[in-house]
Specification:
about 290 residues; alpha+beta; Diaminopimelate Epimerase, Chain A, domain 1; 17-stranded mixed sheet
Length: about 290
């Protein structure tokens, strides 16, 4: 039997981005890729990201969080998931601010309403080898990459940004001209992205408004992706298409993104929703044991 059997898990979402929060602090347990995939295959527990909480690694933080995609791969950051973790940790706590650790660094979280949180997502990584790319490029604001399906417009020259995860952002005028579900898998696995990449289509509505659709690596089409919203704002601001703050509208709802000039930090603000809590059925892991 998996040691995760009967552990309590919270099902949440951030703008429809399906999140599971599994608190393993003090249990001496960890999640394997196979266990993450087994949980994701469960109808009522299907997730985009599983946030597994472990003991903090540095003083002053509440937890170190490992982030699993539905395919069992690990992510360095998940903005919507981090807001869900912040709500979970502050649910019965009078404090309004905590720090959470991820592979991408220490993330300061602040409650701005009963169901609303701001997260300092860190500074964007813009050098080609930080994103990372497989080869050096002169300008990560618009790299030499193009892709298109037969009888469809060609996507060209995306901006690339790391917000703990690699992101490629194509600026388009018409979402309807592109089938992101068909385009996403090929671009996610393009050889220029050694760690794969999240693929976004961004439409500039105004200097304070971006519409965004995201193919998330290890997940697929998603209703919302917080780190992609951060990356899109950074990419748009670098090209002079927006200012350093904008509302980013995704299929699941809106996020407010600020790229602070004072310290280069990107701050994401948005809501969370709690759905239910349950215990992991031992039967979920039967195939792994076999």
């Amino acid at each position: 039997m998996s040691p995760l059997a009967n552990r309590l898990v919270a099902k949440m979402n951030g703008l429809g981005n399906e999140i599971l929060v599994l608190d393993l602090r003090g249990a001496g347990l960890s999640v394997s890729a196979a266990e993450a995939r087994a949980i994701a295959r469960t109808k009522n527990l299907a997730f985009d990201q599983l946030m597994a909480l472990h003991e903090p690694r540095t003083p002053g933080s509440e937890a170190f969080v490992r982030i699993f995609n539905a395919d069992g791969s690990e992510a360095g950051a998940c903005g919507n998931g981090t807001r869900c973790v912040a709500w979970t940790l502050l649910r019965d706590d009078p404090r309004d601010e905590i720090v959470i650790e991820t592979a991408a660094g220490r993330l300061a979280c602040r409650r701005t309403g009963e169901w609303n949180f701001s997260v300092e997502m860190g500074a964007p990584r813009l050098a080609w080898n930080e994103i990372p790319l497989a080869r050096a490029v002169a300008d990560t604001g618009a790299i030499d990459l193009s892709f298109g399906l037969p009888d469809a417009p060609i996507l060209r020259n995306p901006a690339v940004v790391s917000m703990g995860n690699p992101h490629a952002i194509f600026f388009v005028e018409d979402f309807g001209a592109y089938d992101l579900a068909a385009i996403g898998p090929a671009l996610e696995h393009d050889p220029i992205f050694p760690d794969r990449a999240n693929i976004s289509l961004a439409r500039i509505v105004s200097r304070a408004q971006i519409d965004l659709k995201v193919w998330e690596r290890g997940v697929g089409l998603t209703l919302a992706c917080g780190s992609a919203a951060c990356a899109a704002l950074v990419a748009a601001a670098r090209r002079g298409l927006t200012g350093r703050s904008a509302r980013v509208s995704l299929p699941g709802g809106d996020l407010d993104i600020l790229w602070r000039e004072s310290d280069g930090m990107v701050v994401m603000t948005g809501p969370v929703a709690f759905e239910f809590e349950t215990r992991l059925d031992p039967a979920l892991f039967a195939d792994i044991a076999a």
